[in-house]
Amino acid sequence: MAGTSFMATSGGGGMGTSLSSQLPRLTQETELQKMLSDERMRSEQHKTNYQQLKSEHSRLQDEYMQLQNEVRTTIEESRIVQEKYKTMYDQTRQELAERMAEIEDLKTKVISPQRLEILKMQVIEDLEVTYREKYQKQEQEIDEHRTSQNKLRYELSFVKSEYEHEKLEHQRILEEMKLQCETEVSNLRKERDSTINRVQTECSQDSQKVRVLQRENAQLHLKLKGLLSELEEIRSEREKLGLDSDSVSRIQSKQLSENVGVIKALEAERESLKKQSESLLREISQSSDEHNKLTSRIHDLEKENMVLSNRADEVSHKSKVDLTNLKMEMLKQRGELERERDRLSNLVEDLQTQIEINEHKIRSQAQTLEEKEREAVRRVQAAREEEFHKMATIESEKMDLEAKLQEVERQKIDQESYRHADQQKVEDRVRAISNEREAAEKELLVYKTKIQHFENLQDQIERERSENSELKSKVHKLESELSGYYSNEQETTDQNIKLRNQVELLKEELNLTQEQLVKIQNNHDRILSHTRGALIEERNQLHERLKELEGRYSHVQSKLSKAAVIYKKYKTRSHKTTESLRDNIQILEAKNEELDLEKQALKNCVPHEVHNRLKKQWKDLYRRHQEFRAILLPNVKHVAIGDKSFAVATLPQDTHNLSGEFERQHQEDLRLLKTRLDQLDNNQRQQLEELHDIAHSTLLSDRDLDDSREKVDDEKLSMS
């Protein structure tokens, strides 16, 4: 009895050590599964980000193609404009060549002074009209460009004001979103702390209840050990009675087989003995049936107790695991929200930097435009001043030449009048011709000088014409420069249009980011509402489970009280049966003296040594099986009591003396197996410890580990 009690007590310790060795593996497997789920979520997020980047890349490529097409169209338009200007320039050159040819034709012709004046006036008027028209057109175009530039400046200032207003609104919305997120996070933290405190209080209450149950369970185990010891005594007595009854039945069967003739004479005695043996067998069978029923009831009650304790532990473990999962999910969601917030803040910062860069570009371009406009105005003013100065000099020279021509014409008129007077007086002055010839020769010399002077004046006029042609070329150059300025202005307008498009695109991107922020906020609100609903549902379920467990616990206590009453009844019955069996044993001992002679005859059929030898072989095989099982589950052994089995500790291997070569080989195989299993166990423990350190540093806290250890200890106690 002492040995059996020691074995039963050591069984719980063996199961505890096995469960303590399996606990870190289970915790590490759960941590690895969580890490795998996190990595899967991250991979899915990377996939979604890759798809988004791919779509954005395709969109940017399309925009780049569109910009290239626009650049091509602008290049073609600039080529067309250049060709138009080239054709205009060629036409003007042809017109100038034709006019120069006409001027040369007119030079070849005899030109009267009046006609010269008329032609000069016409040419001057034509030139002035053309230049005035061109000047007016240029001024109109400059005014139009100024108005368009002012409009663009006004639009740019309006767009800047709108952008600043939208920027302020965006900042305000972001601040409101941040405040909302912070308030929600603070509320969630408060709820988490309250739930943790509640769960801790509930766990402390559950642990107290479990300790009370463990104490009661230990008391019940002690009672069961006493009952088992009594049952083993009854079983030994029953085995003795069974052996005696078996020997009696064998003796009777052999007597019947060998002494058929004697049976007829001894039928009355045999029938009486049969009746007695049948009554004894019935009583024994009834007692064994009652014993089996009681043992089955006890085992059923123990099983129900174990099942209920396991369920309670499972419920507590599930609740703690669910809480840890909720904590992990909250941490994941918080990390995802922080990542999204960082990503959005980075996007906003990038957009702000791009907007600042674009603003700086716009300012620089506006400054360059203003500088170019100033330079163009300066150049135009300088060209105008030069033209006005040259025109003034030309006009002054023209006035001088006209005065000189008028004097020459007056002289010619005077000469003609003198000639007419001379012709009239020639007849009167025939005599004085000789004297007058000398005067005429002198006058001819004077006229020759005057003609030379006139020719010089014509040369000066030609020079002035060449200067006019040079001035025209300069004017053409100025026109080309003006066309270049116009092209620059067109480029600036195109750049302004592009900047407007960029500003519109930035506005669209801002709208999209605002919509995305609204969507993210809605998703966050939905997730929070779902998590809150799930937490409330889980709380209600846990309360219901606790109520059910309390009801089951009260039911189990009532069953245990009933079982104690039944056990007392069974004990009284067993005492009665033992007393009746003792009486029967005394009767049988009296009859054994009569049956000694019959035993000698029964030794020939089944000797007792063979039976003992087979029993020893069966025990050796069962012991080997238990040793092999003990290697897989160290220090744990199951002993059968009736139809049930109980876990007990095995004795050390040194106490068992094995004999034979087969047993030695068996022991060597077991030793090799044990060393291999120990090596595997050490390697697995080292790997699990490394993984446990990594996972412990990232996921679990010391409190969670203490809770898991307490759970495992509770499970050990419940399993024991």
TrEMBL record:
<keyword id="KW-0963">Cytoplasm</keyword>
<protein>
    <recommendedName>
        <fullName>Centrosomal protein of 83 kDa</fullName>
    </recommendedName>
</protein>
<feature type="coiled-coil region">
    <location>
        <begin position="135"/>
        <end position="180"/>
    </location>
</feature>
<feature type="coiled-coil region">
    <location>
        <begin position="663"/>
        <end position="690"/>
    </location>
</feature>
<dbReference type="GO" id="GO:0005814">
    <property type="term" value="C:centriole"/>
</dbReference>
<keyword id="KW-0206">Cytoskeleton</keyword>
<dbReference type="GO" id="GO:0005794">
    <property type="term" value="C:Golgi apparatus"/>
</dbReference>
<dbReference type="GO" id="GO:0097539">
    <property type="term" value="C:ciliary transition fiber"/>
</dbReference>
<dbReference type="GO" id="GO:0060271">
    <property type="term" value="P:cilium assembly"/>
</dbReference>
<dbReference type="GO" id="GO:0005813">
    <property type="term" value="C:centrosome"/>
</dbReference>
<dbReference type="GO" id="GO:0051660">
    <property type="term" value="P:establishment of centrosome localization"/>
</dbReference>
<feature type="compositionally biased region" description="Basic and acidic residues">
    <location>
        <begin position="36"/>
        <end position="47"/>
    </location>
</feature>
<dbReference type="InterPro" id="IPR052116">
    <property type="entry name" value="Centro_Cilium_Assembly"/>
</dbReference>
<keyword id="KW-0175">Coiled coil</keyword>
<feature type="coiled-coil region">
    <location>
        <begin position="210"/>
        <end position="605"/>
    </location>
</feature>
<feature type="region of interest" description="Disordered">
    <location>
        <begin position="36"/>
        <end position="57"/>
    </location>
</feature>
<feature type="region of interest" description="Disordered">
    <location>
        <begin position="1"/>
        <end position="24"/>
    </location>
</feature>
